[in-house]
Every structure is written in C-alpha cells, then in structure tokens.
Amino acid sequence: MVERVHHIAFVVGDLDAAAAQFEETLGLECYTRETMSGDYYLEVAVYELDGLLQS
C-alpha cells in the first residue's frame, strides 16, 4: 500500500505551455517555479495537490 508520494516529475519541451495546461485542465495553482543548475540546467514548476506537498 502506498503511504505517501514525494513527487512526480514530467519532462516537457515547453514548461510554460505545460504549466498552463496543468492549471487550466486540472485547476491547479503553481506553488513555486525554480531554476536549478548543476550537472543539468532545469526549470521546474511545483504544484501542491490537496495539501500533500512534502519536503
């Protein structure tokens, strides 16, 4: 039985378009948007689902 989910990630070609689709289709609000760098350069959008965001 699954007790919790830390995160689910989607790799997309256009983060702005994907974020708009998540927000419009699923009614989600973006929790935060960040740029991460290191071995890779990533732009991420984080969405909280029913208060389940866990760090």
Any idea what the shape is?
globular
Average the pLDDT over all residues and give the rounded result: 86
Neighbour order of strands in the largest sheet: 1-2
Q: Helical element count?
A: 1
Indicate the percent of residues in helices: 10-25%
Quote the distance from N terminus to C terminus. 21 Å
Structural class by secondary-structure content = alpha+beta
Sheet having the most strands: 2 strands, antiparallel
> How many E-type strands?
2
* Rg, Cα atoms, Å: 12 Å
Poorly predicted regions: none
Order of helices and strands: HEE
Strand proportion, as a percent range, falls in 15-25%
Domain count, please report it: 1
Organism: Halovenus salina
Protein name: VOC domain-containing protein
Can you offer a commentary on this structure?
Strands 1-2 form a two-stranded antiparallel ribbon. It has one helix at 15-26, and strands at 30-36, 42-47. The model has no long low-confidence stretch (mean pLDDT 86). It has one domain (1-55). With 55 residues, the protein is an alpha+beta fold. The two termini are 21 Å apart. The longest helix has 12 residues, at 15-26. It is globular. This is VOC domain-containing protein. Residues 4-55 form the VOC domain.
Give a brief outline of the structure.
The protein has 55 residues and is an alpha+beta fold. It is built from one helix and two strands, in the order αββ.
Please outline the helices and strands:
Elements: H1 15-26, E1 30-36, E2 42-47
Antiparallel strand pairs: 1-2
